[in-house]
Amino acid sequence: MTDTYEMNVRDDLVWETAVSMKGVEFKIGSAGDANAANEPAREKAKKPFDIKGRREPTGEPEWRRTPDDIKNKAAISQYLLVDHMNDFLIYRYTLVFESSEHYNYYLYDESGDHYQVNTFLNGKHSVSFNSRKPTIVRVTGS
C-alpha cells in the first residue's frame, strides 16, 4: 500500500533548525499537539540499534513500509525520502518517517554526514536537508 504524502509545508508541523555533523544546516519538523494522532512517546526499556541499508530518494512522495525486523528494532513503521530536484526549494531532500517510540535517531547519508532527530512525540517526523550523496545508508538510535 502506498499513500501519497503532501510535501507542502504543513501548518501542524513545528520546525527547528539544526546543524549536521559536517556543519550543514537542516530542518526538523515534528507534528505539534494539535495533531491528535501524535501522543507523547512513552519511555520504556528500549534497546539501542544500528541498522545499515540503502534508502534512496525518489521523485515521488510515496510511503514505504519498513520490514518487520526494522520496525521492531527502530520503531519506524514507514518512511519516504523525496528528491525535490525541480521544486526550487531551499532544501532538496525531505525524509519523513513515522515512529512509535521515543528515540534519539541519527540518520547517516552516503557522504558520511548525519542528521539527528530526537523524537519526543509518536507520529510523523520530517527532516529537510541538502547533500551531494543523499542516500540514507545507516540509522542508529538510543
What's the SSE blueprint?
Blueprint: E1 13-19, E2 25-31, E3 49-55, E4 64-65, H1 68-74, E5 76-83, E6 93-99, E7 104-109, E8 114-118, E9 123-129, E10 136-141
Antiparallel strand pairs: 1-2, 2-9, 3-10, 4-5, 5-6, 6-9, 7-8, 7-10
What does this protein look like?
Residues 40-66 have a biased composition (Basic and acidic residues). Residues 32-66 are annotated as: Disordered. The model is unreliable at 1-10 and 33-38 (pLDDT under 50). The strands form two sheets. The chain has a six-stranded antiparallel β-sheet with strand order 1-2-9-6-5-4. The chain has a four-stranded antiparallel β-sheet with strand order 3-10-7-8, covered by helices on one side. The longest helix has 7 residues, at 68-74. The protein contains one helix and ten strands; from the N terminus they run E-E-E-E-H-E-E-E-E-E-E. By secondary structure, the protein is mainly β. It has one domain. Helix content is 5%, strand content 44%.
Gyration radius over CA:
14 Å
Outline type: globular
- Main β-sheet, spatial strand arrangement: 1-2-9-6-5-4
Mean pLDDT over the residues: 85
Structural class, judged by helices and strands?
mainly beta
Count of extended strands:
10
What percentage of residues falls in helices of 4 or more residues? under 10%
What are the segments in which pLDDT stays under 50 over at least 5 consecutive residues?
Answer: 1-10, 33-38
Give the CA-CA distance, first to last residue.
Answer: 29 Å
The helix/strand series, from N terminus to C terminus, equals EEEEHEEEEEE
How many domains, as an integer? 1
Q: With helices defined by DSSP (H or I, 4 residues minimum), what is the helix count?
A: 1
User: DSSP strand (E) fraction?
Assistant: 35-45%
Biased composition (Basic and acidic residues): 40-66
Region (Disordered): 32-66
